[in-house]
Design brief:
The structure holds two protein chains of two kinds. Chain A is of the alpha+beta class. Chain A is built from 22 helices and eight strands. Chain A has two domains: 2-250, no CATH class; 359-469, Protein of unknown function DUF881 (Alpha-Beta Plaits), CATH 3.30.70. Chain A has helices at 2-13, 19-41, 45-49, 51-73, 77-81, 83-87, 89-101, 104-113, 117-134, 141-151, 164-179, 186-194, 202-209, 211-218, 222-234, 238-247, 252-260, 266-291, 299-355, 378-390, 435-443, 448-454, and strands at 360-370, 395-398, 401-403, 409-412, 415-418, 421-422, 427-432, 458-469. In chain A, helix 2 (19-41) crosses helix 4 (51-73) and helix 4 (51-73) crosses helix 15. By secondary structure, chain B is mostly helical. Chain B has one domain. Helices cover 82% and strands 0% of the residues of chain B. Chain B has four helices and no strands. Chain B has helices at residues 2-17, 29-49, 54-78, 81-108. The longest helix of chain B has 28 residues, at 81-108. Chain B is globular. The relative contact order of chain B is 0.13. Classes of the chains: A alpha+beta, B mainly alpha.
Chain lengths: 489, 110
């Protein structure tokens, strides 16, 4: 309860630092304070003077007042109580301004209703307030805060300069005396700072003043306290922070440095222990997160991840199938192309041999014709060639001339020309083919060799296992004929 | 200073021991850590305000952690664990920021 209370109180205090907000807050608080006092006292008088402020404030304050009294009884309340006295004076003083100025009667009315001490205090406050109101000191916040504690001493409060110091000090020391009965707590450290800041001479006064306010804060004042704390949280008390800033030291670094100073007490050990726990948990959590394993995830997240993974896997599988198909197509395509190349090469070789573009070798026959008496006519040579072709000769050479489909025998007997080149005896035919077929074919009666003999020549046929036709003939590209495009495709 | 040393000790211990968080606690540990951070900043601010109280600090630390974890646990039971943990983180983050702003105001007067 106090935990959040203190922090949030402090939070609330944060923004309203500015004096502008404080003033209205204080003024607002004034009626509320009065209200608190009033309800406890008497209903009738209240509505008279503070009707407007009553209605809103009425509902809120009592609740706060209820909480507030509860806190002071508890441990954590002390810190709250501390600031309380500060603020209390402020609003009250303001109240007193109003009251003093306008309705002193109300204060009188309210006071009798309150139990024993209060009337005195209130009256004292009023008196002090009036006194202060007369004096310039009232305007000053610190001075006003100082005024309150004096309220208890009652008589001569405001004018004395020393008392402000004690009032400031006790706030810090209050927790000390209250919380740490056995030994000094953290705040013990703060005190020296604060005390020297406002007043160097305060030192001795502290000892005297501190115990008083502490006791005052605890025992006699509770009622009064109950009022101020109620006002405090509501007023978004710049009170605590302003007081802290003013009293506990103008420089936060000093406070921080003092707190960082190694010291062995309960608060430090406790903070150290909690910080150790925090650091431990922090590291563990960071490591856990860094591991990024699935153990710590919720079911919904796991399902989502599973879905994503499955979807992703499906997409990848589809992509893999597509790539596989593409690869197969490329492979088969290259196969087809290679086959086509092979076929083309084979075809080129065959046609090269047949057309005389390529030299060739193989089994065949070598026919030598001489002209011992008479001359061999071109018709005889043509007859010899056709006989060889009929017998299956595939490549034929005559005296270094490649004989192709377009070769022609011209000239006259004794000066036979082949494709315009005149041949000289002896005529040597080289034909690649089956020797066992070509040889007998040439020798058959009435055949090629018989015709050669009739011309007065002489011929011999010599079968060989390997003959070479080395002569080639350049085949001119066809000028008019083009291949018929394949119709199957 | 001792608190800083404690923090370092805790970090080192976590690094050395390398404990594994029980599966049941894994969703709540980060929230608890954030809550503890919030308490830590609150304590620092209270210290600067001069109203630091170790008992308050301990209570706020533990209650924040437990409450945050409890809220998330409840959210898990209700099927809105993600949203509630986000809400807790947002609230605690706002608190941390406001506390940090107050601390900054104390230290830098701005």
């Amino acid at each position: 309860m106090t935990v959040d209370g203190t922090h949030e109180d402090a939070q609330a205090a944060g923004p309203p630092d500015e004096p502008d907000e404080q003033l209205p807050a204080g003024t607002r608080a004034d009626p509320s304070d009065a209200v608190d006092v009033e309800p406890s006292a008497d209903l009738p008088p209240a509505p008279d003077d503070l009707p407007a402020a009553d209605s809103p404030g009425h509902d809120l304050w009592p609740g706060d007042a209820l909480d507030a009294p509860g806190t002071p009884t508890d441990d954590g309340a002390r810190p709250e109580d501390v600031p309380a006295p500060e603020d209390v004076p402020v609003p009250e003083l303001d109240v007193q301004h109003e009251l003093a100025a306008e309705t002193r009667a109300i204060s009188v009315v309210s006071t009798p209703a309150d139990p024993g001490d209060e009337p005195d205090l209130v009256e004292d406050a009023h008196t002090a307030g009036t006194a202060a109101a007369t004096g310039p000191a009232v305007l000053d916040r610190d001075a006003s805060t100082d005024v309150l504690p004096p309220v208890e001493p009652r008589p001569v409060v405001p004018p004395e300069p020393e008392q402000p110091a004690p009032s400031a000090v006790p706030f810090d020391e209050l927790p000390e005396g209250a919380l740490a009965g056995p030994g000094p707590v953290v705040f013990a450290d703060v005190d020296p700072d604060t005390s020297p800041d406002p007043d160097p001479g305060v030192g001795p006064v502290d000892a005297d003043a501190s115990p008083e306010p502490v006791q005052d804060g605890v025992s006699p004042e509770p009622v009064q306290d109950a009022v101020p704390p109620a006002a405090q949280p509501a007023v978004p008390p710049a009170g605590p922070q302003a007081s802290a800033a003013a009293t506990t030291g103008t420089n936060g670094w000093i406070v921080l440095g003092r707190a960082l100073r190694p010291r062995l007490n309960r608060a430090q050990l406790l903070a150290a222990m909690l910080c150790a726990v925090l650091g431990f948990a922090l590291v563990v959590q960071v490591r856990q997160t860094g591991g990024a394993n699935l153990e710590g995830m919720r079911q919904a997240d796991l399902v989502r991840i599973l879905d994503e993974t499955t979807t992703r896997g499906d997409a990848l599988a589809r992509e893999a199938a597509d790539l596989q198909r593409e690869r197969d197509g490329l492979v088969s395509g290259s196969d087809t192309r290679q086959a086509a190349i092979d076929a083309a090469e084979r075809s080129a070789a065959t046609q090269g041999i047949l057309t005389g573009r390529l030299p060739a070798e193989g089994p065949g026959v070598k026919v030598t014709l001489t002209e011992p008496e008479g001359a061999i006519r071109p018709a005889t040579m043509l007859n010899m060639l056709e006989e060889m072709r009929n017998a299956g000769a595939e490549a034929i050479e005559l005296n270094g001339q490649r004989i192709t489909a377009s070769s022609a025998f011209t000239g006259s007997a004794g000066a036979v020309e082949v494709d315009g080149v005149t041949l000289q005896a002896p005529y040597v035919w080289i034909a690649i083919g089956d020797p066992d077929i070509i040889g007998p074919a040439l020798k058959i009666p009435g055949g090629a060799l018989a015709q050669v003999r009739s011309n007065g020549g002489h011929g011999t046929v010599e079968a060989q296992d390997l003959v070479q036709v080395t002569a080639v003939r350049a085949v001119p590209d066809p000028v008019y004929a083009t291949p018929v495009p394949p119709q199957s495709d | 200073m001792i608190a800083v040393i404690g923090l370092v000790v805790g970090v080192v211990a976590g690094l050395l021991l390398q404990p594994t968080v029980p599966v049941e606690l894994q969703p709540y540990l980060p929230i608890a850590v954030v809550a503890a951070l919030d308490a830590l900043f609150g304590g620092l601010r209270a210290m600067l305000d001069g109203i630091f109280d170790d008992r308050v600090f301990l209570t706020s630390f533990l209650s924040n952690v437990v409450l945050a974890a409890l809220i998330v646990f409840l959210g898990d039971q209700l099927g809105v664990g993600n949203q509630l943990s986000t809400a807790v983180v947002v609230v605690l983050g706002i608190r941390i920021f406001s506390n940090a702003a107050s601390i900054r105001r104390h230290l830098f007067k701005a």
